[in-house]
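Notes from the pairing session

We agreed to fold both candidates in a single pass and log them together. This is the raw record for the first candidate, unedited. Please don't reformat it; downstream parsing expects exactly this layout.

Candidate A
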Amino acid sequence: MNTSDQPILSVRHLSLETGVLSLRSLLLERKLFRKTSILKNISFELGRGECLVIMDDGRSHLPVLIEILAGLRKQTSGLILCSGKVLTADNPRRNSIIRPIFARSDKTLENGLDIGTTLDIPLRFSTELRADERAARIRRTLELLRLPPDIVAEHAWDLSPVENMRVSLARALVLKPRILVSNSAFMDLAPTIRAEMMNISLRLRSEYHITQIFAARNIDIARKISDRILILANGAVEEFGETDQVLGNPQAAGTKKILENFSTRYRYSPEKS
């Protein structure tokens, strides 16, 4: 990211506390409601079209951080800014600025609606486009993902796994978001689908400059798709920097331990030719 450019995304001192109900004394039958910090003072910045992979120690509530970034949960403190403007969880425009995507087929595709209706729903609720304008937006999104226009009449059960993943991504892209976030960097997908989604991810960044944030458990995938890596340990930022620097020459002892754990537990298995 050019230091003279304003970051597309700034996360400043983000924290989350949850109430934990615990028994302080069984003899007295006294209950204590105490607060526990699960995310602590998280800060980072990303430029337009950059990809961030977040990796953690397994105890840092990474899925919760992804939910907060996606606007699905509120943080206790801290700010999330897009192009210098604060985004609150209840901001009506947030849904069209930061969109979640799903590693598995979107559950909304399984509710009996045809694909056209599924793609139209976010446009009806989040924009003021007329019906013909929504239809045109859907057609352009399908073209972007190389899906045939007549797929709008199909249902999820009619599609291949790759087509279902593309439609899930289309549902996120139809609102023209600036940022996409996902709780998985394609790790749970079959190799052919994973390769397809990785290629689409790279194209969205290079051609359309969409910033992307993924949670990941695999070093090889992180190296292939990311510009920057953020390491979480005990709910706080252990290290943040360019991918080659963090993976090739980690500075924090916690980072080295986490990367060593990932290198032995999770291995990337590309599709065999």
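Candidate B (folded immediately after A)
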Amino acid sequence: MKIKLSFITIDAGTQARAKINKNVVEEYAQLLGEGTIFPPVVVFGEKNILADGWHRFFAHRAAGLKEIEVESHEGGVREAIFYGFGANKHRGLQMNQADTRSIIGRLLMDNEWSKLGDRKIADHVGVSSSTVLRQRQAMEGAGKIKKATIKTYVRDGKDIEVDVSVNQKDEPATPVQNESHPRDLQEIKELEDMVNDLSEENQKLKDTIAIGAWDATDIEKEDIQETVAELRERIAILERENNSLRSSRDMYMNQAAELSRINKALQSRLKKQ
């Protein structure tokens, strides 16, 4: 349905980007003048809080139009903000790296949204879970957020919540005999999660090579390069700690090392294409 531009709320703090791209607005306005039909903007609640379609909204205004096609959803400001965080991962003007990092940061600092876990946040924003993990660790190190006491891991397609609060406490003076230390168990889980991430990265690279084209944005390319570098660094650190971990961790280390080697080979093949 169409509603008047004046009926749409644009001052509720729901804009996910740092600023509007004026060049894009002008381009859209020109296309509107030529008869191009754009997808509807997305609004929430009775106040028609704008969640997605900011450039389209301002383009309509710049083109002198009084009405715009809308897709209306139930909810308020928070629902509109959350929707906007993931609105441009598949269509529209892609978020730049600064905006993406800002969105991830806002999600991690929110008491409710931060509980979603790295993987769900990554899926919503349209980045890898490793990207979210890196930013979480950086924010924890800078004291911007508290270390998570509950982490979500994916096992056989199911989300499993693990209490990692033991990692934030002092180790007992005398370890219990014949039992694995909780820190070891947690690091094993982190290793397994890392192996899963490496597997995903490798599969994506294989798909890219198979179709013989790389159509990612510059941000996506940079993100993947950073992800690979971070994973290799993490593997190296874990290898140095390997002697102090129980034998089951060796299995995950071997898997991670092999996946890292495959990842490197695939990256090399991509560069040659």
